[in-house]
Amino acid sequence: MADQQDLMELAKRRGFFFGSNGAYGGTAGFYTFGPEGASLKHNVEAAWRDQFTLRLGNDEIEAPTIMPEAVFEASGHLDGFDDMLVECAECGASHRADHLIEDAVNDIEDAEALGIERVGELIAEHDLACPACGASLAGEPVEDFNLMFETSIGPGSGQPGYMRPETAQGIFVEFPRLKEYARGQLPFGVTQIGTAYRNEISPRRGIIRVREFTQAELEQFIDPEEDEPPLGEVDDVEVTLYPATEQHADDGEYIETTIGEAVDEGIIGSPWVAYFLGIAQGWYERVGVDMDRFRFRQHLAGERAHYAADCWDAESEIGGNWIEIAGFAYRGDYDLTKHGEYSEDRFTVFKRYDEPITVEKAVVDPDMSALGPEFGGAAAGIAEALQDLAERNPDAFDQDEVTVEANGEEYTVDTEIANFAIEEQTESGEHITPHVVEPSFGVGRTVYTLLEHGYSEDEVDGETRSYLSLAPEIAPTNVAVFPLVSNDDALVAVATDVSQALRQAGISVSYDDSGSIGRRYRRQDEVGTPFCVTVDQDGLEGNDEDTVTLRERDSAAQIRIPVAELADELEAIFSGEQTFGDLSSRYGDVETDVTTA
Ligand code: GAP
C-alpha cells in the first residue's frame, strides 16, 4: 500500500497535482493538475464518457457553472446543502463538527447521520479539542454552514447567483428542452462532465476533499411505472455490498453477491440503481481500481442528501480509510417537481395511453351573470376555486351551498350557481413527472484512487524502484521512446521516426534522450508509462530489418521487436486483443538487458 506522504510527494514532483496559487501562499482546497495529472484526468473522463455516454446511448450536455438563485431555491440547496460547522473561540479555526467526532470516537463512522444537536453533545461529552490550537471545543455552538459559493451576476449588486454545487442542476433546469431532443420518450439519459464548487469547511487529504472539483454525472429519466433497466446485462456481475442493515448490526458484514441476486433478495431496492452499480463495477475494473479495495455502501437514513430516496456509494480504500468516489442516488421526482413548481416551464412528459380512455370528470360551469354582481372583482377567482373544489371533493356540491377560498378570503356560493356536473371525457394520455436515477462520479477522487492503488515498489537491477501500474487506456503517456545515447545521429534519427510513426497511429508518445537509460526507465515507471522503446546499435547494425527493445513497466521484461511491426503490435495490446505476454512468447524475452548496460 502506498504511503500517503510518498504519494503526495510523487504527485507534486512528477506533475500529477499540487496545491494551487503557491506563489501567493496557496489557497486551501484548490489544486492544479500538472501535465501528467491533467492527461491522466482527461483519460479517466474519456473512459467515463465512452461507458456512460456512448455505450449506454445517452446524450451529453455542457451547461454553465454559475446559475441564478432561483434554481437553488427550487432545488433545495439554499436551505438544505449544509455541513456542520464548529469554530474555535480561541484561534478562530473552522472545523467539520461531524468529522471531529468520527476522528475521535471509535464506533462512530458517520456522525452526520446523528444530527446537529447530538454532534454538539458528543463534542462536549468527549471534551474534544481544536485540532489547530488544542483549546477545548466543548460548549461551542455547532451550526449549519451552507456550502455554496455565492456570486453576483452582472455589475453592481446585480442578480444573486451561485457556483453550482453539482453538475446535475444544469441538466434538470434544461429538462423542458432535453425532453424534446429525446422526442418526449422515456427512458432517456443525459450526461455531463464538469466543474462543481463547494465551500468545504475543512478541505483535506489532497484532492480528496477540495472546493473546486470535476464531477461526471448521468441523470437517467424514467417512467417509474413502466421502465425497467436491462438488468440481464449485469445479472452476473459480482459485487461487494455493505447495506445499511449490516452497518447497523454489531457483527455487520459485507455481502459478496451478484447484481441479479441482490435485486432478487431486495438488498438493492431499485433495479435501476442496481443496474448502474453493475455497470460501474465493470468500469472501475476497466480503469484499474483494485477491486479488492472497493465496495458499494448504502447510505444510512440520516446521511442521505435532501433529494435522495435511496443512495449507494462506490467507495475505495485509501490509506486504510474508505472514501466515497461515486454516489448512485434514486432522486425520484424530487428535482423535476421542484423546478416545475418554482419555474414557468413544464417539467413533465406526456405519456400516451395504448388506447384512449373515457373518464368521468367533475366540472363546474359557474353562472357569471350571477357571480359577477354578487362578488365583483373576486368572481373570476371564485370560479377557478369552484373548479378546483369539484376535482378535489365533488361531494361538497351535494349541499345547497359551497364554501371556497379565493385570494385569501372565504366565499359561500349557492350550489346552483356553480352548475356542477359529472361529464364523460376522452383522454389520450397524461402528463407525468419522470423519476431520476443518478450515478454521480468524482473524477479527482477516481484519479487519486488510481494513483494510490497503482503505486508499487520493487527491486530492479538491485535498486528499489517505484512505479505506477496504470491501465494503458488511462496512463498519461502510452509509450516512451529513447535513443540509447543522444549523441549518435543514427539512433536519434530512428528514435524520432519511431516516435512519429507511433503518434500517427494515435499512440501518445514521450520522447526522452536525457540522462542514463536506467534513469529514463525510472522516470517513466513513476508516471505509469506502460511501455518504453529503446533504439540501440544492436537493433540497427547487421540485421535484415531494424529492431528496437520494448520494455513492459510492471515486469520490467524486455523483448526485441522489428520497428516495422511495433505500432501494430502496440495497438493490439492497447485495444485488448493481446497482452505483452503474448508478444514475449512470439518474440522471446531479451536475455541480456543491453539497454541498462
Ligand atoms: N449530484 C449528486 C452529487 O453531487 P455527491 O455525493 O455530493 O452527489 C458526487 O457528489 C461525487 O462528487 C462524490 O462521490 C465525490 O466523488 C465527488 N465529490 C463531492 N464533494 C467533493 C469534494 N469536496 N471534493 C472532491 N470530490 C467531491
Q: What does this protein structure show overall?
A:
The chain is of the alpha+beta class and 597 residues long. 33% of the residues lie in helices and 29% in strands. It contains 21 helices and 28 strands. The strands form eight sheets. The protein has a nine-stranded mixed sheet with strand order 3-10-11-21-16-15-14-12-13. A five-stranded mixed sheet has the order 25-24-26-27-28, with helices on both faces. It has a three-stranded antiparallel sheet with strand order 4-9-8. A hairpin with a 5-residue loop joins strand 27 and strand 28 (558-562). The longest helix is centred in the N-terminal third of the chain and has 21 residues, at 35-55. It starts with a helix and ends in a 10-residue tail after the last helix. Glycyl-adenosine-5'-phosphate binds next to strand 11, strand 16, strand 21 and helix 16. Glycyl-adenosine-5'-phosphate binds at residues 166, 168, 198, 200, 209-210, 213, 215, 217, 324-327, 438, 440, 442, 444-445.
